[in-house]
């Protein structure tokens, strides 16, 4: 019975510890162009960071190699764990020198990763609630109306 307990305790401790390995950053003296930056880094397949943070393979719904949705059942499975931190970087004032929300978000994720803290940076999450849905519906209606008016003006029934 003691062996079963010790084995369970080891497994529990192993499951508790998360070892997220950030991608290496190659610091340059001269700032490279956007395309050079994009080509210099190969993202991890989404299954790798999912495994690193303790998600099971069946809790992931993949959309290609680099994007996935996480099943809500994870919340039930990990309900005993303490909640993590959630940081929203938001703003509406444009900054001409390019140090805006995106730069701040990436810098914050890199800094947390450097200090050994698991960090994920997500962009364009539509955290505006119903406003986004209303805007999308309004745009769809305007496009349909535009198309109808155009076709009525340029075509005849004959």
UniProtKB/TrEMBL annotation:
Annotated GO biological process: one-carbon metabolic process
Keywords of the record: ATP-binding, Ligase, Nucleotide-binding, One-carbon metabolism
Record keyword RNA-binding present: no
Protein name (record): Formate--tetrahydrofolate ligase
GO MF, any single term: ATP binding
SUPFAM superfamilies per record: P-loop containing nucleoside triphosphate hydrolases (SSF52540)
Matching Pfam families: FTHFS (PF01268)
């Amino acid at each position: 019975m003691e062996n079963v307990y010790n084995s369970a305790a080891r497994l529990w401790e192993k499951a508790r510890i998360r070892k997220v390995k950030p991608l290496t950053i190659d610091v340059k003296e001269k700032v490279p162009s956007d395309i050079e930056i994009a080509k210099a880094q190969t993202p991890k397949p989404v299954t790798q960071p999912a495994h690193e943070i303790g998600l099971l393979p069946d809790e992931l719904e993949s959309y290609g190699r680099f994007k996935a949705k996480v099943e809500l059942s994870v919340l039930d499975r990990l309900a005993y764990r303490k909640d993590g931190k959630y940081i929203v970087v938001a703003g509406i004032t444009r900054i001409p020198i390019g140090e805006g929300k995106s730069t701040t978000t990436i810098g914050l994720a890199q800094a947390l990763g450097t200090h050994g803290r698991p960090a994920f940076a997500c962009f364009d999450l539509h955290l505006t609630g119903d406003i986004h849905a209303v805007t999308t519906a309004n745009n769809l209606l305007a496009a349909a109306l535009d198309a109808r008016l155009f076709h009525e003006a340029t075509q005849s029934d004959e």
